[in-house]
């Protein structure tokens, strides 16, 4: 079995960025969907705050949680690697720790 850290390392090597490195990451924005990928290959999508909260509750060790952040010229896929931070942001109606609103 591959460890969660090994999976993160492999995803980073594939070009994915870590959401934790973006202090203003828009976790709660409706334009930033979450994708949960399970080891068995199941894929779950969440767009709204309630759906994102349910998706986090579904997360299990070994799952990979991704977010697509659309920007002006392109969209980037990020690995959500700091579950406590995203959980807090979603409890604050999607606001990141800095207080930025959507």
Topology readout:
Layout: H1 4-13, E1 17-18, E2 34-37, E3 43-46, H2 49-58, E4 64-70, E5 75-79, H3 83-91
Parallel strand pairs: 1-5
Antiparallel strand pairs: 2-3, 2-4, 4-5
Helix pairs in contact: 2-3
Task: Describe the structure concisely.
The chain has 102 residues and is of the alpha+beta class.
Structural description of this entry:
This protein has 102 residues and is of the alpha+beta class. The chain has one domain. Helices cover 28% and strands 22% of the residues. It has 3 helices and 5 strands; from the N terminus they run αβββαββα. It has helices at 4-13, 49-58, 83-91, and strands spanning 17-18, 34-37, 43-46, 64-70, 75-79. The protein has a 5-stranded mixed β-sheet with strand order 1-5-4-2-3. A hairpin with a 5-residue loop joins strand 2 (34-37) and strand 3 (43-46). The longest helix has 10 residues, at 4-13. It is globular.
Element string (H = helix, E = strand): HEEEHEEH
Number of continuous helical runs? 3
Mean pLDDT metric: 82
Q: Which segments are poorly predicted (pLDDT under 50) over 5 or more consecutive residues? A: 98-102
Sheet of most strands: 5 strands, mixed
> Order of strands side by side in the largest beta sheet?
1-5-4-2-3
- The number of distinct structural domains comes to 1
Helix content: 25-40%
- The outline comes out as globular
């Amino acid at each position: 079995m591959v460890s969660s850290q090994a999976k993160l390392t492999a995803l980073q090597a594939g070009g994915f960025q870590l959401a934790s490195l973006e202090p203003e990451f828009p976790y709660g924005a409706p334009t930033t969907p979450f994708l949960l990928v399970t080891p068995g290959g199941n894929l779950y999508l969440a767009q709204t705050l309630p759906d994102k909260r349910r998706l986090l509750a579904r997360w299990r060790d070994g799952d990979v949680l991704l977010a697509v952040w659309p920007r002006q010229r392109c969209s980037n896929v990020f690995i959500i690697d700091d579950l406590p931070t995203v959980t807090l942001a979603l409890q604050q109606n999607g606001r990141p720790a800095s207080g930025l609103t959507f």
